[in-house]
Amino acid sequence: MKILAFSDLHLARARAADLVRASAEADLVIGAGDFCTMRQGLAEAMDLLRAIAAPMVVVPGNAESAPELNAAALPNMTVLHGSATKIGDLRLFGLGYGVPETPFGAWSCDLSEAQAAEMLAPCTAADILILHSPPKGVADVTSTGQSVGSTAIRDAIVRIQPSHAFCGHIHDSWGINGHIGATRVVNLGPTVNWFEITA
């Protein structure tokens, strides 16, 4: 399956136009959160992506809540947050929000490590994990050199061993990828990222 994946659009019109153009060749489009900015402009962000015809599977970032994303979602979007879906033979499980809690204040949608672990626990098998936050130690380094990823997400990847784990959230690590066991972890960013993945 030919998959187009991105994260952290943050209402960027030119980036959205690139994604819409590329999506004509995609079997599936994955969005790993932060479509808007600081809980503002989510409907506008969905309008920027409206011309995507392929099925989309998305998770909320810390810039939009799960209820907000469910309410604004396009007809071809499946929203995952502590839940799973299947596209063809591919098993996908998603968890959004900032993990662990961010320092950004009341607008940010965050989970503690314990909350994230509880929401990830039902997932026993997946081909792709769609996450907003990166796992601890991979694609999670800020501009000041801090590793700020999630231990709960890392533990889930170790346990489940999907072929791919897609994330975003840490802008300074956009485009960075690495491995946890057999799992390829990719911090996507708002660019066109192509993957060929089979179950």
Automatic annotation (TrEMBL):
InterPro entries: Calcineurin-like_PHP_lpxH, Metallo-depent_PP-like, UPF0046_metallophosphoest. It holds the Pfam family Metallophos_2. It comes from the Bacteria. SUPFAM superfamilies: Metallo-dependent phosphatases. Residues 1-190 form the Calcineurin-like phosphoesterase domain. Gene3D superfamilies: 3.60.21.10. Belongs to the metallophosphoesterase superfamily. YfcE family. This is Calcineurin-like phosphoesterase superfamily domain protein.
